[in-house]
Amino acid sequence: MTKLVQHVTAADLVYREILLRITTQVLTAGERLPEASLAAETGVSRTPVREALRRLAQEGVVVLVPGGGACLAAPSLKEMADTMEVRVHLERLVIRKLSGTITPLQICRLEETIQEQRAADLDISSLIRQDCLFHHLLAESTHNEALTDSLDALLARSMAFRILFAGREDYDNHLILEEHTRILDALKRRDTELAEKYLEFHLDLALAELSRSGESTGTPPQKVSHAAQRRGADENPAHAPFVEKDPVSPKKRRSSRSTPAGKRFGNRDKEAHFHG
């Protein structure tokens, strides 16, 4: 069998480098991105730099300045909270539409996505993209194009927010996958109410992560880290919403014992492989 080789352009390399600098905190929200400097630092002409910046702008990570130039987006905490609020409502609709209608083939596809992410050694940016892919596939399974398109737009915005701030928070892939698994297991059991509660809890924690990282935009951080909340849920199953069927506000969740910091994904000394 012939192995397909993906061609990597100069623009792809610049795109990856900028994302790597964001997730390793070399670049921060709101920082200007001069084309000339990026071209000199990456050893390419300004044309691929311009192409990479346009691509990042389409994803919401970069803002193109009228008259020339670009800078990293600097979303407010309210913008992030508004996006997550609408996501919750749309994704609850997804769960309701899938209740009793999700097929074995769709379940298998979602399970394969979870297993692939569990087995992969991904950087932070790619993990965030894989997280969003799970939610996209749930929506796609409803066969409602308007719903899927609407959610995809919100997923792109929330993905951009998280990429901008991912380096400021421990990102535990294992626990996020466990949350996805619980949502899917509830759907398999046709328990719509429980699946909705798992989903709401999952998105509440995602918002808490963004809120805590909001200190980079001048907004107050949350008192409890996103990773600590997830560890608390994982360590205290008797008190977790996926056992009690009663979600608990992230602000009220605490770990019952001290735990080491969550594993930080990505390596600043290695080239990151981002999904385009």
Overview of this structure, please?
The protein is mainly α and 276 residues long. The protein is 59% helix and 2% strand. The protein has helices at residues 10-23, 35-42, 46-58, 77-98, 104-119, 124-140, 145-165, 173-188, 192-213, 226-235, 241-244, and strands at 62-64, 70-72. It has a two-stranded antiparallel ribbon with strand order 1-2. A hairpin with a 5-residue loop joins strand 1 and strand 2. Helix 2 (35-42) crosses helix 3 (46-58), helix 5 (104-119) packs antiparallel against helix 8 and helix 8 (173-188) packs antiparallel against helix 9. The longest helix has 22 residues, at 77-98. The two termini are 25 Å apart. 38% of the residues are buried.
Span between N and C termini?
25 Å
H/E topology pattern: HHHEEHHHHHHHH
Broad shape: elongated
Widest sheet: strand ordering: 1-2
Major sheet, described briefly? Answer: 2 strands, antiparallel
Which quaternary structure do these chains form? single chain
Give the strand tally: 2
Estimated structural class: mainly alpha
* Percentage of residues in DSSP E strands: under 5%
The total of helices stands at 11
Low-confidence stretches: 1-5, 216-276
Helix content: 55-70%
Any idea what the radius of gyration is? 19 Å
- Kindly report the average pLDDT value: 76
